[in-house]
Amino acid sequence: MNILPGNMRFGAGRPVKRLEDQRLLTGKGQFIDDRPEEGALWLHVLRSPHAHAKIVAIDTRAAAELPGVEAIYTGADLVRDDIGTIPTLAIFKRPDGSPMTVPPRRLLAHEVVRFAGEPVAAVVATSRVLAQNAAEAIAVDYEVLPSVVDPVEAVKPGAPVVWPEAPDNIVGAMSYGDAAKVEAAFASAAHTVSLDLVSQRLIPSAMEPRSTIAEIDKSGRLILHVQSQTPGSTRDLLAESILKRPKESVRVLVGDIGGGFGQKTSLYPEDGVVAYAATKLGKKIRWRGDRTDEFVGGTHGRDLTSTGEFALDAKGRVLAYRVRSIGGTGAYSSGAGNIIPLVLGPFVQTGVYDLPLVHFEVKSVMTNTAPVGAYRGAGRPEAVFIVERLMDAAARQIGMDPRAIRKVNYIKPAQLPYTNAAGQVYDSGAFAHMMQRASDLADWDGFNARKKAAKKKGLLYGRGLTSYIEWTGGRAHTEKVSLHATAEGRIILHSGTMAMGQGLQTTYTQMVSDTLGIPMDTIDVVQGDTDLATGFGSVGSRSLFVGGTAVAVSTNDMINKAREKASNVLETSVEDIEYRDGFLTVVGTDKRISLFEIAKKEDGARLSVDSEGEVDGPSWPNGTHICEVEIDPETGVSKVVRYTTVDDVGIAVNPMLVTGQVHGGVAQGIGQALYEGVSYNEEGQLLTASYQDYCVPRADDIPPIEVTLDDSAPCRTNPLGAKGCGESGAIGGPPCITNGVMDALSELGIKQLNTPLTPAKVWQAIRDARVGV
Q1: What is the pLDDT of residue 536?
Q2: CA-CA-CA-CA torsion sign (639, 641, 647, 651)
Q3: How many CB atoms lie within 10 A of CB 456?
Q4: C-alpha to C-alpha distance for 396 and 57, rounded to whole angstroms
Q5: Confidence (pTM)
Q6: Closest C-alpha to 196, from 326, 298, 366
Q7: Best exposed site among 55, 506, 677, 708 by fewest CB in 10 Å?
Q8: What is the spatial distance between Cα 221 and Cα 224, in angstroms, rounded to a whole number?
Q9: What is the pLDDT of residues 549-558, one digit of tens each?
Q10: Residue-wise over 632-668: b if at least 16 C-beta within 10 A, else e?
Q11: 275: how many CB neighbours lie within 10 A of its CB?
Q12: Residue 515 burial (CB < 10 Å; 0-12/13-18/19+)?
């Protein structure tokens, strides 16, 4: 971890309004579709209508004769040109100990398609419409094969096989803990609780669908305009794995991104095909996905089916915790597709509780569906969902207050730093304190009166509680930035992290302004250009606590370098130079020089530093969410009417931005709990391929969300004391809301329903309970 001067300021916790909003809200954003066409050719992707089939033949002759068509590419063309495949991390073992094996992810399918929506051919034409028309004229002869869409069904004997080298469809497996000791604890426990739980597959709903432009500049370099949270790795994958050329020959540029949520963390087949076409034709090529392209061809999230069990003593202390899970990866393994269920989930599966005796068994399983990748929280929401649903179920079975059972099991402050059952070290936290504070703010004691009032209106009323924890960092604990002071009086920051709605421009500007004493309107934050900065990027809520650490280091480095330069100009020792508010002064005199005057004397008329920030490990944001839910038993409609959170994100540089992040995460949590869910039919056709069939929450489905930030337990792994915050709401939200609905339904004897808790599902459960089904 970098050690920085104790008197440095890093934003001072001020709720500065977002600097980005002026241009974004006035139509001046720089999204890919805002770029002028300038004679660019358009690319359209033809997708497979089948979930699993052999490609017998592709006839492109009729399509090639249509007006405006410049080129048509198939998987065979790319194989002939030695175009590579999108790599995955083959770091796991299958249950028999053999290495994991997955089908190669090609830009265009070759010989076999493995999910409905997989790209099969690409047409380049002079307009988007002409390209689409030509694609529809391509004749593909398929031999349809059996398919499987449910991961649980996929591991059963005789299930259709997605990839012959994994005949049981299992990609990898991991086990944590001691099975024998857990079994013994269950055998002697006063209480056991078991739930079959599903974190259903979800489709990310970014405001801006994926889009790509590729062109060759005058020097012969490939320029790729793309939406990517990780510009550096996107460049490297495209250059080295796909096109097999030096990475220096590719420049990736990312402008504004209309939402990422983890879905835009890597290179997609469409991006690679656009780049390939640009290199083949030597022309600018562009592609813009529509919403159905996103639904059928983009990565999905979640898809974890689990059985979770507690063994408890008579006082509600958890003696042992057992989980068996199957995580769906889809037909291909995305970069994080196996890591999410096999590693990231188990990292936080014990939550904020002292549960050292565990046994977790997890398998990642292929199906003939779109690939599963990162989606806000990536594994942590699924894991926290299991432990928090079990906590409520156990409390109800034993007859305990849901707060009391959690208090019995919380990790105590004296146990910190605490190593959990998966070997992860929580550096800080005050979990019981968070729950008490949230209870007070949520008016816990007033719940019964509100429930009574709801009952008079014929409504069922329930309360949900969740104590969550989140692992942030992406296992990349360093980040590089460069900082420049120019002769024109501006400060320019180049960072490899990537803004996608978090407000990084604002936060970084605050930090630089407060430390250097420079007005915010003279500071420029530049991201998304691999020629200027490469880093790990923005995933896993790492931007501020790792990327922000690099910013803090760079301001300190800038001051130190400026002091050295000033000592030469002012003819005194460095120790006698004091920096304040853009000026370097000889202590005790009026002799001084400005930072920008020093820059004027430098080569290129700018004073520059290249800096690296390093943290000691991940951060562990956590908190308590409490909600209240009302249900109309005549319609099954559930509505969240109150929502209170107390969130520990360590030291918040900009509390207003953090609050906004929590709001957004909770909104997505409401979607997961009540509305959203992917549905494939038995033939592998996506039934929820548009917003006509895939339901997301609207504005009037979101209640007032009261967010309180608690900084009583600063992070100890970075000099800012900051913890990640971007995924917290999406982790705490789903179990909190689900617990609220189940609490309301419990008076009817309904013990378990799987999300999404749609009106039809809730209505049917109520009817069945009333007739004694």
Answers
A1: 85
A2: positive
A3: 7
A4: 60
A5: 0.96
A6: 326
A7: 708
A8: 10
A9: 999 999 999 9
A10: bbeebebebbbbbbbbbbbbbbbbebbbbbbbbbbbb
A11: 29
A12: buried
- The CA-to-CA distance between both ends of the chain, in Å, stands at 59
The letter for the amino acid at 107 is L
Tell me the C-alpha to C-alpha distance, in Å, between residue 410 and each of 183, 420, 467: 23, 12, 9
Token couple for 601:
């004397």
Q: What are the CA-CA distances from residue 492 to residues 100, 488, 521, 612, 717 (Å)?
A: 45, 11, 11, 16, 27
Residue numbers in the chain where pLDDT is lower than 70:
7, 11-12, 474, 773
Q: In 176-206, which positions are buried (b, 16+ CB within 10 angstroms) versus exposed (e)?
A: bbbeeebeebbeebebbbebebbbbbbbbbb
**Is-contact 372 201, C-beta < 8 A?**
yes
Helix axes 402-409, 431-441, angle to 10 degrees: 160
The full 3-state SS of 631-675, as one line of letters, equals EECCCCEEEEEEEEEEEECECCCCHHHHHHHHHHHHHHHHHHHHH
Backbone angles phi, psi at 103, to 5 degrees: -70, 145
The four Cα atoms 280, 281, 282, 283 give a dihedral, to 10 degrees, of -130
The bridge status of strand 250-253 relative to strand 222-226 is parallel
Structure token digits, residue 641: 């009417």
Q: How many CA atoms lie within 13 A of 489 on its CB side?
A: 5
| Six token digits for residue 375 | 């989606």
Angle, helices 402-409 vs 380-398, to 10°: value is 120
